Amino acid sequence: MLKLYDDELCGDSYKVRLMLGLLGVPYRRERIELYPSRQNRTQEFLAMSPLGRLPVLEADGALLHDAHAILVYLARRYGDAASGQAHWLPLDDPLQLARIQNWLGFAAQLSAMVFPLRDAVLHAQSAPRRLPDIGTNESRTLLRVLDETLWFNEAAATPFVCATSRPTIADIACFVPVALLDEAEIESIDYPAFRRWSRRLKRLDGFTTMAGVYAAV
Amino acid sequence: MADKHHVVESAWFALCGVDELDERAIYHTELAGHELVVWRAEGGAVNVWENRCPHRGVRLSLGHHRGDALQCQYHGWQFGTGSGACRFVPAHPQAPPPAVAVQTWPVQVRYGFVWTCLTLPGELPPFTPIEELENEASPGAAPAQPVRLRAVAIDAASDTVQHALADYRFDYTGFDAWQTSDCVAFEVAPHAVMIEQLDEAAHRVVFLVQPAREGRTYLHGIALGPFAANQRLAVLRHHQQRLNALRDALEQQSAYQERVNRHDIADMPQPDARSLVRSTPGQPAVLQQSVSKPVSVLSSGSGTAVYSGEHHEANLAFTVHLSRSGQTVNVAADVTVLHALRAHGVEVPSSCEQGVCGTCRTRVLQGTPLHLDDFLTPPEKAAGDCMMVCVSRAVSSTLTLDL
């Protein structure tokens, strides 16, 4: 069985739990607490993940790092045509594949802005050094681009991030930082397309919640 | 959230397209510093509510659409369409719901948009029709629907945005991103601007300005047809490019202005919004008032309403007599009636302590209360026979309460 080393409150860990839930894949969890005990800095964990980052997935005798890499693995390992889940990472269309890579990179950028701010809010830590810029211009530009993209994709009846009619792993990767904007105290009022897209994802079978991310009714 | 003690222009403003409310959406927006939620009940009624649960103040936009009610995410209280009255409390399923309601605002659905006016009932101004949109919507007109553009958020003041629209240019021939033809702007209503191409096609687009808060504006647009079905997306993208350019130019300008105000910079060249937006120099940019719709009667300060002015009495001390116990309680300048009573061992049931939930409603037998709550209706306030002791005070030097 798969073994996931993760933390309940870690955004990148949530991306992987969400994917596992949507694919309906059973797994065991090993909790590595980031805060306050910093179990990711122990010698044992650093031996598994040299950068001390979560999540880590033990699968097929290998240790996988990086949430987006794990999404790729899970989508291809378990998302087959027979289960009707091949849409998460379709390989037959080169353009589509490039778009997914593009938006995974975007999601990494967005996560790198939102998650540290959220940590600062939740744990009352001193804010990241570049806080003023992060809070306004940089994240605003990213969020505007995402909202506009989603709005136009919706207008073209392909309402997901990569202009597809069914979600891809890029939607999972972008959804988590968007869902955690409030906890990072970044306003989402200017981005109405996020709400409709989020609700679409929340209504998928197997959608998994986390603290601060609620299911749709 | 901005305080309510400021003047809000008493006019109708477009908030969102009605199709934004599909699929049980709870649309979150802001008007003049008031956070609002817009939602449509299953029966079709559209609601514009303050985005605040009267129980513990949590945003209703975080909650759930329950068909004919909104449910707060925090304690699950449900508020019904129309009145906004609480109709169910999960913790007390058998008990009648408390007499609490969400603050609601008037609603009009016109031209495919939801409109509201932040004015108390009784002071509601009539809706000023926009003839250019009426014609488009009438049944006998062109068969093609107009195209509603994506709303754009701009970090600049609404009058700045409205003024800058005088330089708006577009061109559908080939949908070239930077090609433009001459256009002219008309103010067709106090917060609406129409841009018309000065060529034979005379394509038109109408923009509706929503002042979200100080320094932030939402701009709604409708491109008037007819358009072929396969043209609509191109029209949307064309205007989006132009609007993004306008937004970026205005934000650069207001960021510059902010830095000048802080004396941060001395020799930075000032960006010119006009030069960035227009690509046909020499075209006179005139914001004309529509011949069909003179706006002078409505656009000036004459149409404004004061919510609640500055009350000089608000912080004065006064005395409260309690008719049942015969006690007298002095209420100091910076102490609420509720707290003064509590200090004297008199408990009044209370919940929000912010004048919104209605729990601490208390009968006034003598004296004139100074109402500072958001719960009582204007007639109830005028009657003066009850008050919310958590926030309200006294105009007279003494009050007698039924306690």
From TrEMBL, chain A:
Q: Which domain of life is it from?
A: Bacteria
Residue ranges annotated as transmembrane are none
Q: Does the keyword Transferase apply?
A: yes
The record's keywords, sorted A to Z, are: Transferase
Instruction: Tell me which residues make up the GST N-terminal domain.
Output: 1-82
Q: Name one Pfam family in it.
A: GST_N_2
Any one GO MF annotation of this record: transferase activity
Show the PROSITE patterns listed in the entry.
GST_NTER (PS50404)
User: Which protein, by its recorded name, is this?
Assistant: Glutathione S-transferase
UniProt source species:
Paraburkholderia dioscoreae
